[in-house]
Amino acid sequence: MSLGPIGMNNGMDINAMVSKIVEAERAPKQQRINNELNQIDSTISAYGRLRESLDTMKNLMASFRQEKAFAARKVESTDDAIVSATATTEAIAGRYAVDVLQLAQSHKIASDVLPEDAKFDAGKLRIAMGNKSFTVDVKQNAKLADIVRTINGEKSNPGVRASVINDVNGPRLIVASELSGKDNAVSVAVESANPNNLLNRLAYKTLEQRVADLEKARADAQALLNPLNDEEQKVADRIAQRNIEAAKVVDQEIADASKQAASVVDPNAAKDVTPTNPISEKALAAAASAGQTANRYLKPEERIPGWTPTASGTLLDSYWEPEPQLDAKAIEKSGDIPGWTNTASGTLTDSYVTPKEAKAALDKKLALEQAAIAAANKSEMDKIDQALASGELDDAAAKQAKLALLPTEQRDYIQRMERAQQALQSAQSSFDTYNGMSQVQAAQDSEVLLDGVAKLSSKNNIIEDAIDGVNLTLKGRSDPSQGASEIDIDYNRESVRGDIEQFVTAYNQFYSLSKELAMADPATGQRGPLAGDSVVRGADSRLKMVFSSRIDPAPAELKTLSEFGVTTTRQGTLEINYSMLDRQLNNNFNKLGDFFGGSQGFAKKVEDAIHGITGVQGALRTREQSLVERNYRIQDDQASLDRRMDSLEKRTHAKFSAMQDTTGKMQQQLAGMMNAFGR
Known about the structure:
Helices cover 51% and strands 15% of the residues. By secondary structure, it is of the alpha+beta class. The strands form five sheets. A five-stranded antiparallel beta sheet has the order 1-15-3-11-12, with no helix packed on it. Strands 7-8-4-10 form a four-stranded antiparallel beta sheet. Strands 2-14-13 form a three-stranded antiparallel beta sheet, with no helix packed on it.
């Protein structure tokens, strides 16, 4: 039988025994540290919730202090499908009638139907949108799709977009401006050496532009038919100016009367005027007087055949004077005059030279000039004609040779007539045979009639500052049979009412939260994380003091919060008397800023009270900082405890290990003694 010290053997669990000893030593100290950490965490969390609630009120008060809080405007439209509006704080309250005459739209033009497999010769398209332009190079044998890609891909393109519409009869090119407004109209000019280039069908000129080109060419040609020297032009200008000032002479009949009257006084009044023989002032006065006489109003008895003094006033009332009618010559000519209307008088058409008449006269005068030149230089001209016939000279060289025979002045005049003849022929041909692109949608600005008197316009469908501080957004045209849409602009009382409600709600939430955090029930023993904390009581008392204080800068009827109908209940929360609040909003809206705003207003006082609690030097922040520092100290205690427990564990483990070794040696000695006794 083997005997040994009781409980001592080589199989005991030293680690388990050491752990239990160390844990028993650690437990009470660790529990104290854990309790303190939990209390700090819950208190810091409670302070955070309290600060967040107070900051909500503070932010509301910050918005109340801004002038725009009580200057915001509410805008309503009687027909949002026609017009809507937004208003800034500068808008004047009132009602405005808005007639949308037209909406802004972008310019769009389209070509005629083109062949499916159309190929274009080389050339350039000069495209403009308003006063911005760019040039597109079209390569030889380019297709319509190539032109579209080139236009849209051009880096200098200011906002012109091209596309192809596949008509049932073939493709069409569509070119449109991305920007609306009449100042963003599109134009397309073609530069091509080949007059038969299909690219010419992509040019776009308005009817007005084509008429203007034709009129300019006609005027240039007519100037060559009746040239005036400098002195003659001065006389013409003086007569015209005197007539304009004296009688506003615009008709040829009046001009003839003026000329005849001037000629009676001075035979040289209208011809043979030289620097040494100018038209006399007396002749000018006679011309002006004749113009006045010709232009004066004639009473009916002076111009109605058979008029007698016995005619009644009723005849004057019922007498209708017919509009001037065109005579046969005027009717014949009117078809050649671009933009002609039937209200023009026959006299005007007598004096007006149409483009076709100008070209015929120019052709005739040029032929006469050339015939005179040929007669004067017959021998030299014959030599040139022979050289042309033999092939020594071509047409261009022969023409230059003939012109070289003339004096410089005469040669220049003939060349000017030829250029004018070509320009007039080109303009007339362009007008008569125009086959370029046509307008699909006109470029136009939006137009609005405000209150029936003010006409407003914009490049787009938003008219900014249509009324001071009001922007109109146009959505559709007004129906004349339905009357104008109306825009109502008023103070935004509902917004301010909502802000006051938010403030009351924010305080009541703070009050409920503070009661929850500072709660202490002696019956149940339940306590909030801030039970007995003076910060909570101090915050509420500060706010209640502001709520009951008078605001000196405010008007007499708005000195305290209670005069808005905001009062404190028996439970400590705030409540609103809406009848009182609405009365103040309706009657004293423009005075609310005096109560809430400014450096001495209600909002600033609430902000200051809250800042004294939650600010950097506030009581709440001071408490939080104290808790943070306490938390650091407890963490130091935790580290110190961990070090002590590690040391205890090592010492205890060493003791048990030594005891185990000693027990082992004793067992070995005992076993040796037993063997010595023969056991």
